[in-house]
Every structure is written in structure tokens, then in C-alpha cells.
């Protein structure tokens, strides 16, 4: 018998679309925040800060969609896991948006200062963080944990780059105290990017639970 597309199906599809929209916006903010840093583009940094308001608004809309679905539709099993995962994803995406805003604010601090060092590792961290975010959202939308392959490896790579940036900047500051005002924002940016990756892998763990009803948080199972 052919499945009839119901109003409930439409509501679930609308929730998925809202999360994808929020994820796309957040990924764009990560990209723009790093571009503002690389190019010392004050206007682009201000644009990121302004756009974070839209991310906050989407989180509230998604929360409302999820609460209405639970209250009015009383979903069971897989649908309930999908809806509750959607709420958790929106929370992580909102925090990623805040971190992109923080990067933009640090970029503003550095916009009028000469470069301390060539930016190599930080843009690489951003690219990896965006790749992780795309992968976890793809896995969520398709209900396919196979799409999470490599996510935790990329997170570890980002952690390694953060440590590398930290050690290099600390060495520079020890040798030249005048470098401190330019080094500290870069240290913070590397930390923000690491936290972005952490939130993205939180989403990956939630997707595993949604699809497989398997807990991989807090040592509850093997990660992909």
C-alpha cells in the first residue's frame, strides 16, 4: 500500500528543513568569520555579529516546532528520537553560531593591527570544522550514520592543530611581550574553533542515538 503523505509528515519535513536552514546559516557564519580574520575585513566581521541574531531566532522556532510535535502528535519510537534530536541539534547549532560571533569579535580586535604570523593552521581548523558540520547534518537528514565516517578523526585533527597554534603563540609571546595583544585573540579563535568541532561531534553522537538507539556519549559505546 502506498504511503499517504499526511499533515504530520509535512510537519516532520518542515522541522528537518528548519534544522538544515539553521545549519547552513551557521556554516556560513564560520566561513565569514574566518574570512574577516584573514582579510582584516571589519564589515564582514560586523555582518557575522549581526547575522547571529537570525541563528538565535531559528533556534526558538525549532524548539517551538518540536514542542508542538510532541504535545499534539505524541510521537513514538523513531519519530520521537528524531524530534528530540532536532531540539538538541538546534541547541548545538546556536552555540556554534555564538562561537562564530566570538571569532568575528576577535577579528575586529585584530583588523587594524599588522599580522603576527601567516595564518595557516587556523583556516585549516575552520575548514575541518565546516566539513564535520556538513557531515553530521547530512547524516541527520538522511538518517545514515555511515555518513559520520571520519568525523571523530577530524575532531582529533582539529585538537592537534589547536595545540600547535597554542604552543607557537605562547613561544612568540615569551620571546616578545609586545606581541601579546595580537597573540591572545588568535589563541581564543583557535579555542573557539575547537569548541565548534566539539559541538558538531555532539550532533554526531545524537544522530547515532536517533538512528540506532545507541548511546555513544560518555563512554557509552564505540565512536565511528
From TrEMBL:
Q: Which SUPFAM superfamilies match?
A: PhoU-like
Q: Keywords of this protein's UniProt record, alphabetized? A: Cytoplasm, Phosphate transport, Transport
Q: Where in the cell is it found?
A: Cytoplasm
Alphabetical GO biological process terms: intracellular phosphate ion homeostasis; negative regulation of phosphate metabolic process; phosphate ion transport
Please indicate if the UniProt record lists RNA-binding as a keyword.
Answer: no
The PhoU domain is annotated at 19-106, 122-207
Q: Which GO terms describe its cellular component?
A: cytoplasm
The source's domain of life comes to Bacteria
Keyword Transport: yes or no? Answer: yes
Matching InterPro entries, A to Z? PhoU (IPR028366), PhoU-like_sf (IPR038078), PhoU_dom (IPR026022)
Question: Which Pfam family, an example, fits this chain?
Answer: PhoU
How it assembles, according to the record, is: Homodimer.
Describe the family membership recorded for this protein in Swiss-Prot or TrEMBL: Belongs to the PhoU family.
Q: What does this protein do?
A: Plays a role in the regulation of phosphate uptake.
Tell me the protein's name: Phosphate-specific transport system accessory protein PhoU
Q: What is the protein's species of origin?
A: Candidatus Saganbacteria bacterium
Amino acid at each position: 500500500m502506498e504511503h499517504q503523505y499526511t499533515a504530520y509528515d509535512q510537519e516532520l519535513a518542515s522541522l528537518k528543513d528548519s534544522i538544515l536552514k539553521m545549519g547552513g546559516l551557521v556554516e556560513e557564519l564560520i566561513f565569514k568569520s574566518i574570512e574577516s580574520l584573514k582579510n582584516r575585513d571589519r564589515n564582514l566581521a560586523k555582518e557575522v555579529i549581526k547575522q547571529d541574531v537570525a541563528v538565535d531566532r531559528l533556534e526558538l522556532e525549532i524548539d517551538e516546532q518540536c514542542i508542538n510535535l510532541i504535545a499534539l502528535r505524541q510521537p513514538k519510537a523513531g519519530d520521537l528520537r528524531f524530534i528530540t534530536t532536532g531540539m538538541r541539534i538546534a541547541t548545538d547549532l546556536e552555540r556554534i553560531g555564538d562561537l562564530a560571533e566570538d571569532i568575528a569579535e576577535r577579528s575586529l580586535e585584530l583588523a587594524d593591527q599588522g599580522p603576527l604570523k601567516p595564518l595557516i593552521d587556523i583556516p585549516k581548523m575552520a575548514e575541518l570544522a565546516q566539513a564535520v558540520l556538513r557531515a553530521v547534518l547530512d547524516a541527520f537528514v538522511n538518517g545514515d550514520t555511515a555518513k559520520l565516517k571520519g568525523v571523530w578523526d577530524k575532531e582529533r585533527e582539529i585538537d592537534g592543530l589547536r595545540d600547535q597554534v597554542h604552543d607557537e603563540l605562547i613561544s612568540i609571546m615569551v620571546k616578545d611581550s609586545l606581541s601579546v595583544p595580537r597573540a591572545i585573540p588568535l589563541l581564543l579563535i583557535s579555542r573557539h574553533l575547537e569548541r565548534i568541532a566539539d559541538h558538531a561531534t555532539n550532533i554526531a553522537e545524537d544522530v547515532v542515538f536517533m538512528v540506532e538507539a545507541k548511546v555513544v556519549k560518555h563512554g557509552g559505546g564505540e565512536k565511528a
